[in-house]
Write a structure and sequence with these properties.
It is a single chain. The protein has 191 residues and is an alpha/beta fold. Strands 2-3-1-4-5 form a 5-stranded parallel sheet, with helices on both faces. Helix 2 crosses helix 3. The longest helix is centred in the middle third of the chain and has 15 residues. Bound molecules: adenosine-5'-diphosphate.
Length: 191
């Protein structure tokens, strides 16, 4: 299996690029944010819980997120692999992901990070908020809170995967097509 963590701060373009990668490599794309939003829309219990955190730009509690992710993986075990988008977001989640994949005799092949400057991110997210209907994109304070959490809890995962020789940084500024080409080059270079 080819299992990729698509990584980068909020607004880096993970969702946009994941849609291309999934087609090119035949992988299952799991976006934790999308799964939460689906649950919110359908007014499930998980959705109600997740919404209370997401609207403030905070992380949904780890165990809730890990259980949800495990269930998504379990549904797709016959696939060629996964693109994890929005997960893991902290070390505890990264460790849980390793344990989960190990239980299926597979592992993370690479973390590929889209690197984008903060000011570009805030601008992109607020712009997305004009049309996305996402409450967490609509307001400067919440957007900045999400970026702050990224630096406080998530960015450290770069060292987590670098220590295993699995970290690959990609310049996330440029046209969508150019960035796709950069990502494909990294993926094609993996064993
Ligand atoms: P973005 O990448 O633009 O921040 P996402 O759609 O990935 O947006 O996530 C939106 C929100 O969903 C996050 O701010 C957080 O509240 C929640 N969320 C998504 N993934 C996780 C996760 N792995 N752990 C905890 N909360 C998460």
């Amino acid at each position: 299996m080819k299992n990729l963590v698509l990584f980068g701060p909020p607004g880096a373009g993970k969702g946009t690029q994941a849609a291309f990668l999934k087609e090119t490599y035949g992988l299952i794309h799991i976006s934790t944010g999308d799964v939460f939003r689906f649950n919110i829309k359908n007014e499930t219990e998980l959705g109600t819980l997740a919404k209370s955190f997401m609207d403030k730009g905070e992380l949904v509690p780890d165990q809730v997120t890990i259980d949800m992710l495990s269930a998504e993986v379990a549904k797709n075990l016959d696939s060629k692999g996964f693109i994890f988008d929005g997960f893991p977001r902290n070390v505890l989640q990264a460790e849980a992901l390793d344990v989960l994949l190990d239980s299926y005799d597979t592992e993370i092949s690479a973390m590929i990070a889209l690197e984008v400057d903060d000011e570009v991110l805030v601008e992109r997210l607020l712009k997305r908020g004009e049309t996305s209907g996402r409450p967490d994109d609509a307001n400067d304070t919440v957007v900045r809170n999400r970026i702050k959490i990224y630096y406080n809890e998530t960015a450290i995962l770069k060292s987590y995967y670098a220590a295993k020789d699995k970290y690959f940084g990609v310049d996330g500024v440029g046209s969508v097509e150019d960035i796709t080409v950069r990502l494909n080059a990294v993926i094609d270079s993996l064993k």
